[in-house]
Specification:
By secondary structure, the protein is an alpha/beta fold. It has a single domain, classed as Uracil-DNA glycosylase-like domain (Uracil-DNA Glycosylase, subunit E, 3-Layer(aba) Sandwich). The chain has eight helices and six strands. A six-stranded mixed β-sheet has the order 1-3-2-4-6-5, sandwiched between helices. A hairpin with a 3-residue loop joins strand 5 and strand 6. The longest helix is centred in the middle third of the chain and has 17 residues. The model has no long low-confidence stretch (mean pLDDT 95).
Amino acid sequence: MPPGPTSETVASLQDLIAECRLCPRLVEWREKVAREKVRRFADQEYWGRPVPSFGDPKARLLVMGLAPAAHGGNRTGRIFTGDRSGDWLFRALHKAGFANQPLSIARNDGLRLKDCYVTAAVRCAPPQNKPLPLEIANCRPYLLRELDLLSRVKVIVALGRLAFDVSIASIGLKEPLGARPLFKHAAQFELQNNIRLIASFHPSQQNTFTGKLTEPMFDKVFSLARKAID
């Protein structure tokens, strides 16, 4: 993918992302889910396209997720919106002062982020929530262009191991460790450009229902982020 135009903005980049068809497997899956739906959302029109990032373009906090959920972002058209993971995320962001409300159910629900931007390593819902390495690579140029445009970012909260690895691969560690960085909840690392990376377990039901991730644990991550940027 060639570099973006000099006039590119965060908003124009999201418009471009929403039209992407680079990954045939993901295109087929996201559109199949949007056609077939599930019973509880049978009366809703699904987005069924790559899901744009959103938030404050002047944000100092960037939240990095894995990919849209099949019946969450792939349905609503906004990342982490309309699913249980998003319930956890926006509740935590609201507590930490990064969101004006604790709930997010639709693109037009009034949610506004302040000093925070939410993105993902992959922009299309993948089968079984598992994107392939080539699909991650295809999406990375969008992320790199996004990082260039989000010039005030000081902290990245990576939700899950994949988002953690993509963050490091995209920006680079400030001090190479000589070994693969250890992913651990609330662990902190320094990236290039004086950006701090904070690792977090993903707020998926697999983690929250089992108690691997509790609400106090998740709140702690955004408390650390708040302290790092203030």
